[in-house]
Write a sequence for this structure.
């Protein structure tokens, strides 16, 4: 019943890729799967849940500049472009658009496979709208 959805979207906020992890898994632990599947991009925008030095290094090794604000518990301050970080709202809007689908917003499906397929179906409709 408790899952966390990770998504990759394009600059317009359209979903490109999804994967789920268990709800108790932190964001940056789930992000360890991402670097192999990343599409070509110049910037990586995400919230402070993905704040980890090893994740930033993995992104930079692929030629992607991270724009991730530092988490409160991070010992040193992290520099990022605040102006570019404002575009992260498009990703938040993408997540909010999937809540228009009642089945997904209320998490009707108990089976993770069926729930994930409902997310993919909703994302494919959202992508073309």
């Amino acid at each position: 019943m408790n899952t966390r959805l990770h998504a990759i979207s394009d600059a317009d906020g359209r979903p490109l890729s999804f994967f789920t992890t268990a709800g108790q898994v932190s964001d940056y632990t789930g992000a360890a799967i991402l670097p192999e599947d990343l599409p070509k991009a110049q910037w990586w925008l995400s919230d402070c849940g993905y704040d980890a030095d090893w994740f930033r290094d993995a992104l930079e090794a692929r030629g992607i500049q991270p724009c991730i604000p530092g988490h409160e518990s991070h010992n040193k301050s992290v520099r990022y472009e605040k102006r570019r970080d404002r575009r992260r709202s498009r990703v938040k809007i993408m997540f909010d658009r999937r809540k228009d689908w009642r089945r997904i917003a209320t998490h009707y499906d108990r089976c993770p496979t069926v729930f994930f397929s409902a997310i993919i179906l909703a994302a494919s409709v959202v992508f073309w709208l």
Observations:
- Strands lie at 3-9, 15-22, 43-45, 65-67.
